[in-house]
Amino acid sequence: MNVLILKLKIMMKTCFQILSFILLTAGMANAQQTLNDNYQKEKIRSLISQMTLQEKVSLLHANSKFYVSGVKRLGIPEWALSDGPHGVRAEINRHDWAYAGWTTDSATCFPPGTALAATWNPALAVKQGLVLGEEARFRKKDVLLGPGINIIRSPLCGRNFEYMSEDPFLISKMAVAYIKALQSKDVAVSVKHWIANNQETHRDSVDVQMSERALREIYLPGFKAAVTEGGAYTVMAAYNKFRGDWCSENEYLNRQILRKELGFKGVLMTDWAAAHTTVKAALTGLDLEMGTDKKDYNEWYFADPLIKAVERGEVPLSVVDEKVGNVLRVMFKTKMFDESNREKGKMNTPEHQKAAYNSAAEAAVLLQNKGNILPISFNKIKSVAIIGDNATRKQCGAGLSSEIKALYEITPLEAIKQKFGANVKVNFARGYEKQSTFKEGSNRGQSNSDNVDWKLIQEAVKVAKESDVVIIFGGLNHDFDTESFDRQNMDLPYGQEVLMREVAKANPKTVVVIVAGSPVKLAGIVNQVPAILWSWYGGMEAGNAVADVLSGKVNPSGKLPFTIPVALDQSPAHALGNFPGKDLKVNYEEDVLVGYRWFDTKKIQPQFPFGYGLSYTGFALSGFSTDKNIYEKDGIIHAKFAVKNTGRRYGAEVVQLYVSDPVSSVLRPEKELKAFEKVFLQPGETKTVELQVKVSDLAFYDETKKTWKVEAGEFVLQLGNSSRNISKTVKISVK
Ligand code: BGC
Question: Which atom of ligand 1 is nearest to the CA of 162?
Fold first, then answer.
């Protein structure tokens, strides 16, 4: 007994020592942080006090396409910005848009935003952030222009592929992970585009109208999380207007929400050429003007005109000082005054390429697999037909500002030949041809892209008949998924539907792989082909990843980050005739019913729902319970359940927790995502998972009281693996 007591005492002492050590080091870290902050404040104050007005203003506008001049005399370095968000863009000439032709700027290219979101795995966003940070530093960049986190409001928005999701919660989780990781490498992010840049049509003139509730519940949360949880150092104002004022000079957005409510202390920059005035923009909180076409940089709104505005007393000097302070603060945070301790960066390492591969592999969403024709046992077949332009198309180098000069890009055809070509005959036929062309700012190049090319189809049918299995790589390309314009419809271009139908008739063992970054109409093929895999733009490792998913080396675990409608007019903005707006105004009349919130509330059956994706194994959810039945408004719900892999392959399930408020004083979406987890399981393995939801997160935004409100009463927690496949529910009450 005595020995036991002695042992217990020793254990307690050790625990106490460990705890004291943790507290002491945490205390020391806090004290160190305060010291650093004070040092920074003092340094910033001192630098500002030594600067002339001209020098201050030189920090507030670019002096070339992507650089801002420093103040040499005071040791303030030049600021180097580069496009992201899924790779560090190749070097562009200082004074025109041509590429500089460097031989050292080929980079790692990740799958773009929708693909990253489709992994539902924030750990991959962390990896991407770290890699981008390292490559940005290697290229001596200080700011990487990403992530792009606008809500996917319409299937047609040209930039959907760069953004992440129709759901603000999923966006928040991925964005925060990405931002924290990237900034840990001493590079600032620029979260874009603040705010409501949800279409490319008239993006630089359209005025977005939305309710305060839609702003608070749908369009703002991602940005809020990016700033308050992610600690984003810079934010990029959108091109469009918001409630009558340009986003770059919007008092409500920039002073009231961004600075005051979110406590943003970083730099608010314009999108390229998105400044419109000097005085108003200066007074409403813009810090940095980037990218106008005026050749003389001194003529920019935040150059000589700003100096004059200060001299005339229209802009107080204190306002200029505030902006300079913001710029210097970001420079300090990214260690620009401490180069010897700054991340040195690395480029194109095998780890970087592995990270790009992992994202692509985990992003793939298996939409349909009738008769389990996937995975393909390549060791049991003699021949495979590979059909489609996207089997050989390299995608990394297009899309406009997010285009990447990838070090390499493995296409699906290359990967399949390389992995299986020794034993399997690979029969390639183009099947359809790219008939569109890209012309910046105009979607005219998309028209005339619906021609069915029977000659190519006949060739495809021939190889399909000669092969054991057929894989068609179709979908879109960056003539459609691109910055600067929106698509005209949701159809698969170039007569692909006809091709897919004819090929499947010739060989029923046909798998369709969709390469695209935004929803396309699949209604014409779901009943014609047994298997559909959505592989996104997969970055530089696209081919390797998709080949491994097709062969079963990788078990698909991606889930849709957006709803795929049967037809465009099911989709909220289009059902209400509010895309892309009229007379340069767009009214977000669907309000908070964006994406699945609309489909589920209006009971419209989509083609494939938000959060959906199959696996080569099976999963079962059981034992869903909460720690209490009744919660206080400041409480936290601990929801517990078990997930079992019921099949014979290793795999991952994304368990999604939605909440609904059946009785409410306002219309609430049928359900809203409040938590999720990707659970990796060996065959037969079971894991217990706990998800937490703050009761305050069940609130809606009360427009009359201008505050968040949780109404007492019943809420239903719904657990499932898509917004439409709920397998367990638990009711709780809030006091
Ligand atoms: C885009 C931004 C981009 C910038 C610089 C703009 O046209 O909207 O996302 O970062 O150009 O290339």
Answer: 9
In short, whether 83's Cβ falls inside 6 Å of ligand 1 is yes
By DSSP bridging, strand 241-242 and strand 245-246 are antiparallel
Contacts of 37 (CB under 8 A, 6+ apart): none
Cite the active site residues: 271
- Which letter does DSSP use for residue 627 in this model? S
- Predicted TM-score of the model (pTM): 0.95
- Whether residue 272 has its Cβ less than 6 Å from ligand 1: yes
- Is the pLDDT at 22 greater than 60? The verdict is no
Work out the angle between the directed axes of helices 542-551 and 350-363 (0-180°, nearest 10). Answer: 50
**pLDDT at residue 35, as a whole number:** 76
Task: Please tell me what DSSP assigns to residue 670.
Answer: S
Do residues 642 and 624 touch, judged by C-beta distance below 8 A? Answer: no
CA 430 to chain centre: 31
Query: Do 406 and 509 fall within a single domain?
Result: yes
- Give nearest CA residue, ligand 1 atom 7: 272
Q: List, for residues 126-143, the tens digit of each pLDDT value.
A: 999 999 999 999 999 999
Q: Are residues 367 and 478 in the same domain?
A: yes
| Structure confidence by residue, pLDDT tens digits, 651-692 | 999 999 999 999 999 999 999 999 999 999 999 999 999 999
pLDDT at 19 over 60: no
CATH number at residue 551: 3.40.50.1700
- The pair of three-digit structure tokens given for residue 432, joined into one six-digit string: 């359809």
State the residue range of the domain holding 480. 350-562
Whichever domain contains 727, its CATH number is: 2.60.40.10
Q: Is residue 678 part of a domain?
A: yes
State how far the alpha carbon of 391 is from the alpha carbons of 183, 364, 518, in Å.
36, 16, 18
Contact 146, 192 (CB under 8 A): yes
